[in-house]
Amino acid sequence: MSAEEEDMACILRQSAATIEQQSETVTRRRYAQFIETCKARTKRQVLNQQAEMDTYAEAWDKDVADYERAVGAEESGDLHTAAEWYRKAAGNDFADSARKLAEVLEGIARRHLTKPGGRAAACELQLVVEEASKAYIAAFMAGDIDEDELGPRLDQLLNYLHPARASNRPVLTIAASAEPDGEEPEPSEPGPRPESLPAAPAGEASSSGQARHLNPSHDQSSAR
Amino acid sequence: MSEGYQGEGAGRHEREARMSTASFWTFFEKYDTRLRRYMIARTADRVLAEQIADETMMYAYDKWDRLLLMEKPDSWLFTVATNKLNRLEAKYRRANFLREDLENFENDLQAVAKEDSWIEPRIDLILAIRLLPRHQMEVLTLHFFADQKLADIARAMNVTLGTVNQHLSRGLTRLRRDPHLRTAIEVTRRIPA
After folding, report:
1. In terms of residue numbers, what domain contains A220?
2. In 3D, which of A132, A139, A128, A125 has the Cα closest to residue A103?
3. Which of A160, A201, B168, B178 could form a disulfide with B128 if both were Cys (CB 3.0 to 4.6 A apart)?
4. The dihedral of CA B145, B146, B147, B153: what is its sign?
5. Which pLDDT tens digit goes with each residue over B141-161?
6. Is B182 on the interface with A (CB under 8 A)?
């Protein structure tokens, strides 16, 4: 743990040290109310409440099963089936399924590059890229990927849609902090590119202004 | 919760029931307040937080005989509450029913602080935690506020220990850079180890 992280961990430990503290009177009163509520329930109410809580446990088991099916399909190279199962798990914000969904969809988009193109294929590619972009943003919002990864990944997705763009467009990056008005942001390193596409020419590193709105923590901290 | 049988062997069962009740009180005394404050730190809606904390504790009461056999009943308690909260939040988020903006977070915390003196001096910290990306917030609150081990958190979240460590590290770094927590950090630095 770095010194920076240790500082913060220390503050959290100090706060957590007193988290259980409550006056005995309050705890005893809460307990008496709690037991009274528990005992006042009819047998039917108890069963209904237990069934409701059980459904959450079952739903978690189902998410685990969906996720494992997705991993199995991905390992066997069946990306469409993998996407279907990751999509279900991602709908419940389960584990890192949003990021996995985005990566699988990106794999599907990559396969499109090697296929002969037609109008239907182009439409499908567009839909895949759109969904993959949304899934990457969902993964970013959940904290599964950080701002340094998001920009290059979105940029790479756009390159699948417009291969010619790769040679003459800057790479999209997300600024970690705001620059003062009127100042040009520092140029950033270009992100990874698909193997089949050429890298951006030197000196065409990105401007991050357009992408800054994608950083929720930036918006929130500046709002404060 | 088991209740005493009438007739043959009633004395033994009554004794067991009394012991079971006594041990549940110990569990309640230790975890009720912690669970409620953990839930409040986790969600933007204190009513939802308290409702889930109550329902989970009631579920533990109903399943107490089974929980007594578990190695870590506290782990079970926090996992059940977290799963329910995550699922409900995902549902509300899909329906645009969950307000996850700064203004709502602040108003909600001010209201909780009036009822709970533990929250009041920690509003900035809890606010900063609530503003973290969801999975980073989950790891930080489970580890520090619910006192769960990182390996148990990895199991509960169905991710690897490496991923949990990454969330912990990124979450701590992000909190450390929050301008509203600078004073708290300076004060902590002055406290000798």
Report:
1. 146-174+191-224
2. A132
3. B178
4. negative
5. 999 999 999 999 999 999 999
6. no
Task: Report chain B's terminal Cα–Cα distance, integer Å.
Answer: 45
Residues A21, B34: C-beta atoms closer than 8 Å: no
Q: Is residue B20, in this structure, part of any structural domain at all?
A: yes
Q: Which residues of B10-40 are buried (b: 16+ CB within 10 A; e: fewer)?
A: eeebeeebeebeeebeebbbebbbbbbbbbb
Looking at the fold, whether A56 and A97 belong to one and the same domain comes out as yes
A217 closest CB neighbour out of B25, B34, B131: B131
Where residue A173 falls among pLDDT bands split at 50, 70, 90? low
CB contact under 8 A, A7 and B29: no
pTM comes to: 0.78
ipTM higher than threshold 0.85: no
SS3 for A25-36 is: HHHHHHHHHHHH
**Is B176 close to A4, i.e. CB distance below 8 A?**
yes
Q: Is residue B5 part of a domain?
A: no
Interface test mutation site (partner A, options B59, B80, B141, max chain A beta carbons within 10 A): B59
User: Nearest CA of chain B to the CA of A118: how many Å?
Assistant: 34
A201 lies in some domain: yes
Query: How many structural domains compose chain A?
Result: 2
Chain A residues with CB under 8 Å of B29 CB are 27, 31
